[in-house]
C-alpha cells in the first residue's frame, strides 16, 4: 500500500510516507525539517483517557507550549478525564469527546441521533482547521479522530509502538526504544521525535484559586497547618483495577505505626466508588485519623496532596497527580510494571514491590495476588520513614508545598 518509505534520523526515529492516506487524505511530504521550523498556529493533542494517562501527558503539554508560545493548543479528551485539564495555563481549549453519550445511543438503538451528533462533532473538528495533531494515545479511536481533523501534520507512534493499527492514520511516525520506559518518557520522546526541545523545567499542576481556598478551609477546620508529618493515604482503586489494590488491613497497620512512631496525621483520600475502601482502612486503625470530605474535582484532590508531606498509595491516577504536585510519593506495585508506571521523575519517590517471577503481568483476574501479598507493612513503613527523612533534609524545613 505504501511506497517511498524513508527513515529519517535526528532527534528521533521518524517514518516519512508520501503516498495517499486513508479515505483519500493526502499524506504530506515531510523532510528533515523539524515541525518547529514550520508555520504551526493550531495544534490538537489527542489523549482521551484514563485519568492517570492524561495526567502523564501534561509535562509534554508544557514542552509543546514552550516550542509554540503563540499557537492555539486544544486537547480532545473523554469527559471523565477532562476536569484535570480545565484551567491549565498552557492549554487554550478542552474538547470533550462524548463517548458515554454515543454509547448510550448505540445501546438504545437511537441511530439517527447518533449519526447527527457524530456528524456535528466531525464538522466541529474540521472547522478548527488544525495544522498539527499529536496522538499520544495510539489506538484506533484516537487515530480516527486525528485523521478526521484534516490536519496536514498528524504525529503518532510508529508500527509496533501503538495498538489497533493506529500508525495508519499518522503521516509522521516516531519509533521508540524497545526496552521499557515510563509513560512520561514515552510522551516526551514523541515530541523529541518531532524535533522539538523537550528540556523543560520541572512541571507542576496549576490549581485554580477556588480549589486552593476549598482545601485551605479543610486544613483550617482540622487544624492541620502546623502538623508534621501529614501523610495522604489513598488505599483504593477503581473496581476495574482492583487487581492492583494493596490490602486495607496492611494500610491500616502502616498508618497506625506512622502515627505512633512519627506522630503522623493521616488523611485518607478516595475517588469515585472508593470511599468504602477508605472507610474500611479507618475502621481497622487503632489511632484516630482524618478522613477527607468528598472533593468535587481532581484539582481539589491535587491541592490536598500539595498540602501534605508525603503520599502513600497504589499505582493509580491520584499517585501521578501527587507526583506532579511535588509531593514525595511511596507507590506500592503488584502486577503492574514499575518502569512503565513510574511516578514523575521531577519528584522524590520510592517504589515498593516484591520481585516475583510472575510480576509484572496483565492478568486482571488473578485471585492469588502473590505479588501484593509479598509486600509487607514493614517494608512500606521503612520506605515512608526514609523518604520523609530525605525530603526533610532536602527542603531544609518541614513545610509542605504551597
How would you characterize the overall build of this protein?
The chain contains 14 helices and 14 strands. With 402 residues, it is α/β, with parallel strands linked by helices. The protein folds into 2 domains: 187 residues, Rossmann fold (3-Layer(aba) Sandwich), CATH 3.40.50.2000; 187 residues, Rossmann fold (3-Layer(aba) Sandwich), CATH 3.40.50.2000. The strands form 2 sheets. Strands 1-2-8-7-6-3-4-5 form an 8-stranded mixed β-sheet. Strands 11-10-9-12-13-14 form a 6-stranded parallel β-sheet, sandwiched between helices. Helix 2 packs parallel to helix 7, helix 8 packs across helix 11 and helix 9 packs across helix 10. The radius of gyration is 23 Å and the shape is globular. The N terminus is likely disordered.
Amino acid at each position: 500500500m505504501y511506497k517511498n518509505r524513508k527513515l529519517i534520523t535526528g532527534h528521533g526515529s521518524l517514518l516519512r510516507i508520501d503516498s495517499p492516506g486513508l479515505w483519500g487524505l493526502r499524506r504530506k511530504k515531510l523532510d528533515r525539517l523539524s515541525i518547529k521550523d514550520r508555520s504551526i498556529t493550531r495544534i490538537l493533542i489527542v489523549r482521551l483517557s484514563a485519568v492517570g494517562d492524561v495526567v502523564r501527558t501534561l509535562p509534554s503539554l508544557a514542552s509543546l507550549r514552550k516550542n509554540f508560545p503563540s499557537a492555539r493548543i486544544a486537547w480532545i479528551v473523554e469527559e471523565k478525564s477532562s476536569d484535570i485539564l480545565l484551567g491549565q495555563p498552557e492549554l487554550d481549549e478542552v474538547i470533550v469527546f462524548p463517548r458515554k453519550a454515543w454509547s448510550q445511543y448505540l445501546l438504545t438503538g437511537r441511530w439517527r441521533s447518533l449519526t447527527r451528533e457524530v456528524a456535528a462533532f466531525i464538522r466541529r473538528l474540521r472547522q478548527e482547521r488544525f495544522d498539527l495533531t499529536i496522538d499520544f494515545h495510539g489506538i484506533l479511536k484516537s487515530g480516527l479522530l486525528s485523521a478526521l481533523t484534516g490536519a496536514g501534520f498528524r504525529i503518532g507512534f510508529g508500527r509496533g509502538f501503538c495498538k489497533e493499527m493506529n500508525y495508519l492514520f499518522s503521516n509522521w511516525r516516531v519509533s521508540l526504544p524497545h526496552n521499557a520506559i515510563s509513560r512520561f518518557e514515552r510522551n516526551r520522546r514523541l515530541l523529541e521525535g518531532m524535533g522539538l526541545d523537550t528540556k523543560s523545567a520541572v512541571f507542576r499542576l496549576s490549581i485554580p484559586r477556588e480549589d486552593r481556598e476549598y482545601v485551605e478551609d479543610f486544613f483550617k477546620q482540622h487544624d492541620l497547618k502546623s502538623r508534621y508529618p501529614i501523610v495522604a493515604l489513598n488505599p483504593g482503586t477503581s473496581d476495574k483495577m482492583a487487581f492492583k489494590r494493596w490490602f486495607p488491613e496492611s494500610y491500616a497497620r502502616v498508618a497506625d505505626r506512622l502515627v505512633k512512631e512519627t506522630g503522623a496525621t493521616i488523611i485518607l483520600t478516595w475517588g469515585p466508588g472508593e470511599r468504602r475502601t477508605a472507610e474500611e482502612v479507618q475502621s481497622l486503625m487503632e489511632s484516630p485519623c482524618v478522613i477527607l470530605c468528598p472533593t468535587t474535582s481532581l484539582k481539589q484532590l491535587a491541592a490536598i496532596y500539595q498540602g501534605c508531606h508525603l503520599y502513600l498509595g497504589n499505582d493509580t491516577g491520584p499517585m501521578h497527580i501527587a507526583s506532579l504536585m511535588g509531593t514525595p510519593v511511596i507507590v506500592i506495585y503488584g502486577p503492574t510494571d514499575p518502569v512503565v508506571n513510574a511516578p514523575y521523575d521531577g519528584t522524590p519517590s520510592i517504589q515498593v514491590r516484591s520481585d516475583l517471577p510472575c510480576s509484572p503481568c496483565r492478568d486482571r483476574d488473578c485471585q492469588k495476588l502473590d505479588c501484593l501479598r509479598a509486600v509487607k507493612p514493614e517494608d512500606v513503613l521503612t520506605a515512608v520513614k526514609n523518604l520523609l527523612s530525605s525530603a526533610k533534609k532536602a527542603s531544609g524545613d518541614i513545610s509542605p508545598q504551597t
